[in-house]
Structure prediction request, 370 residues.
Amino acid sequence: MTEATVPLVDLGWQHREIAVEVAMGWDSVLDRTAFILGPEVSTFERAYESFTGLGNCVGVANGTDALELALRALDIGTGHEVIVPANTFVASALAVRRTGAVPVLVDVDPVHLLMDPSCVVDAVGPKTRAIMPVHLFGQMAPVEDLADAGGTDLHIVEDCAQAQGATRAGVHAGGLGRVGGTSFYPGKNLGAYGDGGAVLTMDDELAHRICLLRNYGSIQKYVHDELGFNSRLDTLQAVVLSAKLARLGSWNAERQAAASRYEQLLAGVDRVVTPTVACGNNHVWHLYVVRVANRDDVLRRMVELGVNAGIHYPIPVHLLGTFADLGYRPGDFPVTEAAASEILSLPMFPGISESQLDRVVDVLLEATGS
Ligand SMILES: *Cc1c(COP(=O)(O)O)cnc(C)c1O
Prediction:
């Protein structure tokens, strides 16, 4: 008998847990045929505020918009620069770009692959307005050290897309900076059944501005006082997000248990470098990223053997064609570039079984040889 493939992410398990609740919630929306904003969206927003202890959650259409609107609400745009790590998903830098500002990239620390405060010092210039720490793979970047490195005049805009439920020194992602943007893309720790996102902030005035920006620049129908966007969290998605949010704590605990088992099974295996948790962080393991030599061969072999590992991300932001005009070259960010050739994401999702975890490790050991 051939064993079933172990997927990188299995969203079916989550759906089975909430299917009845979602069906009921959707029926109620469909009965009223009220599909934009409405009580389901504010119910979710208030629930996310209680979950995180952050004062304001404003639902928007996706994570990229959340970051763009956060920057725009701070009046960041053309003529400004925002410091962004080179080791992130493209959307962090894209959001900066879309405001008209220039993303100034910096390298990451070699242990956690998070934005490196010592690199920020050199990147700050007269046009710098903000730093965008990215809470990559499920743990928070050292926001307080990054803020110190940048100086008091800079805003901190956190990219929380991979960190729903993550804390640093007990504070949820989005609460250490001025504002944060998060994503509810289906595969995130808190994922919708389509696109979604939110802006998070303790600053009520900023939250009010985001409410305008997401809804054509209007707080009262047909009165438009500023250039707005259409970027709202969908009502049907809010139903899904509320159902999932009620379980997010236990689902993140399942991810943590899976990470511990990987760590245990790979202890003492020198050819696989396992990820570590930075001091003060509660890591929610959006991704479990190990490092190996000959990564491309290892990945190919694992997939052949029925384990769908992945790479997050194979091409660093500064080497993407879309940012060619920024003038970066190979060699500019050595830590990020070295990581890009070694990183390997192992299957990680709530509901992953012990036998699946064991199989992933068996296959990884075989693929890396000895
Ligand atoms: C997913 C993600 C985003 C973008 O979110 P979307 O909802 O897909 O627009 C931004 N930053 C990071 C680090 C992400 O992982």
Notes: The pocket of pyridoxal-5'-phosphate is lined by residues 62-64, 88-89, 91-92, 134, 159, 161-162, 183, 185, 195, 197 (CB under 6 Å). The chain has a mean pLDDT of 96. The first helix runs from residue 12 to 32.
